[in-house]
Design goal:
- The chain has 18 helices and 10 strands.
- The chain is an alpha/beta fold and about 500 residues long.
- The strands form 2 sheets. It has a 5-stranded parallel β-sheet with strand order 2-3-1-4-5. It has a 5-stranded parallel β-sheet with strand order 7-8-6-9-10, sandwiched between helices.
- The chain folds into 2 domains: about 230 residues, P-loop containing nucleotide triphosphate hydrolases (Rossmann fold); about 230 residues, Rossmann fold, CATH 3.40.50.
- One of its GO terms (biological process) is ATP biosynthetic process.
- It comes from Xanthobacter dioxanivorans.
- InterPro entries: P-loop_NTPase, PolyP_AMP_Tfrase, PPK2-related.
- Pfam families: PPK2.
């Protein structure tokens, strides 16, 4: 992909001066369409060797665009491990729909750097690129378009320019992306790895554009033209059609009845009050000891609670809270997304709450809303919730690989027990806030939720993040099972 850019690409000053006004006007008009439509956001990834002009392209784009709707996204770029999952910093900074983010040092940096330093073999490098490709496909499906630019400059010229920028009386700020790569061998391996990465991750929805950077005006004009082309393509995309509500499943005569994983649970399991008090205290003490241990300071805990309405999620979370240092955990109750959250991919609001190592986060309902309530209520289409299983598996795998223990619970009760608890909530004044007309309405969709839960567990119960189905007809039994599971998982992970 880099062969054609090795030849001279030049733009006369007079030609650039003649081209620039119309390019600027067209860019602003296309940007205003992006802002007005608010259907998508745009990430512009700028890479290239140090000295190729990454900062220069950034500054030129800022001069051509309405800067009130442009964000510069820059990151410290160590190859070493960080205090959160590596992808967290990119997720946190995603711009909302209608805005442009220009990124210096993207998710390509770490695998390219490690490959150039000889710290990553080819098989692991290819695996990292495949993960990136899935991530970019998900971003595009969730409303984030990508413009990926590689500024090409041969090594000798790049080093000459870098030296000129950093020496003398008039020094300028320089974007140093590859400071770790000091030797010629490492720089050569970076070039080879970059070409391989461009081939492997140049897709129809997120192709790489290699821009010759020897001539500054040609470089900037080409970058601006690519941006204009991308903005126009975004504006031309049709609006998505509304999704119809899914029907309740019907039995086909002669066909096997649908399998329900929840029907396999023994909901009669229970504990006596004495058993409950003793076992609850023991498991809380285990969790306290484990989360206060030095080993936990290098790890973390992410707990997701899902379940039928009135299954006891809140009361179980309360018993877990009592085992944790209140300075080192947060509980996030998940309701319908806010306007801020709807303007970004659905996983954004969960990624941004992943804590530092040594801390715990508890989600009262979670990212599984995409394949549960959004699926059942028709808030997203089959394409969206169908691809979400793989996206969720990637998310949980990335969090697990960063040292966090991910524990997921489904609290299950019967329809009859749910009706009894609803009626109890209606009769007790201080519990009425827990019950809404929508809760009663959702009971009519029990078969839809049953089918959604079965598929969810089947497709997202993994080795690193298995589902734990909790028999919650007896709240005492459910609370102890949840806390014991968390303590066991922590003990296995921390040693």
């Amino acid at each position: 992909m880099f062969e054609s850019v090795k030849f001279e690409h030049h733009l006369d000053k007079a030609d650039f001066k003649a081209l620039e006004p119309s390019l600027r006007e067209d860019l602003l008009n296309a940007q205003f369409q992006l802002i007005d439509q608010k259907r998508r956001s745009l990430l512009v990834l700028i890479h290239g060797p140090d000295g190729s002009g990454k900062g220069g392209v950034l500054n030129r784009l800022y001069g051509w665009l309405d800067v009130r709707k442009v964000q510069t996204l820059t990151f410290d770029m160590p190859c070493a491990e960080e205090d959160r999952p590596p992808m967290w910093k990119y997720w946190r900074e995603l711009p909302p729909f209608g805005q442009i983010g220009v990124m210096l040092g993207s998710w390509y940096h770490a695998p390219l750097c490690r490959r150039a330093l000889g710290e990553m073999g080819r098989a692991d490098f290819i695996s990292a690129l495949q993960e990136i490709q899935r991530f970019e496909a998900m971003l595009h499906s969730e409303g984030v378009s990508l413009l990926k630019i590689w500024l090409y400059l041969d090594d000798e010229e790049a080093r000459r320019r870098l030296k000129a920028l950093t020496k003398g009386a008039w020094q300028r700020p320089v974007v140093r992306e590859w400071a770790e790569l000091g030797g010629a061998g490492a720089r050569k391996r970076l070039y080879e790895a970059s070409e391989e990465a461009a081939r492997a991750t140049s897709t129809e929805i997120a192709p790489w554009h290699v821009v010759p950077a020897a001539d500054v005006d040609y470089r900037d004009a080409m970058a601006g033209s690519l941006l204009l082309e991308t903005l126009r393509a975004i504006a031309a995309e049709p609006e998505p059609a509304p999704q119809p509500l899914p029907p309740n499943p019907t039995r086909v005569p002669g066909a096997l009845p649908p399998f329900s994983i929840l029907s396999t649970l023994d909901l009669s399991q229970s504990l006596t009050p004495a058993e409950y008090e003793a076992q609850l205290a023991r498991e809380q003490n285990r969790i306290t000891r484990l989360t206060n241990s030095p080993a936990f300071g290098r790890a973390g805990l992410v707990v997701a609670f899902e379940g039928s309405d009135a299954a006891g999620k809140s009361s179980t979370i309360m018993r877990l809270r009592r085992a944790l240092d209140p300075q080192r955990f947060r509980v996030h109750p998940i309701a319908a997304p806010t306007d801020e959250e709807r303007a970004r991919p659905y996983l954004w609001r969960f990624w941004r709450h992943i804590p530092q190592h040594g801390r715990t986060v508890i989600f009262d309902r979670s990212w599984y809303g995409r394949v549960l309530v959004e699926r059942v209520e028709g808030l997203c289409g089959p394409d969206d919730w169908g691809r979400a299983y793989g996206e969720i598996n990637d998310f949980e795998d990335q969090v697990s690989q960063a040292g966090y223990v991910v524990v997921k619970f489904w609290l299950a009760i019967s329809e009859a027990e749910q009706a009894r608890r609803f009626e109890e909530r209606e009769s007790i004044a201080y519990k009425r806030f827990k019950l809404t007309p929508e809760d009663w309405r959702n009971r009519g969709k029990w078969p839809l939720y049953d089918a959604a839960v079965t598929e969810m567990v089947d497709r997202t119960s993994t080795r690193t993040a298995p589902w734990v189905l909790v028999e919650a007809e007896d709240k005492h039994f459910a609370r102890v099972k949840v806390l014991r599971t968390i303590a066991d998982r922590l003990e296995a992970a921390l040693g």
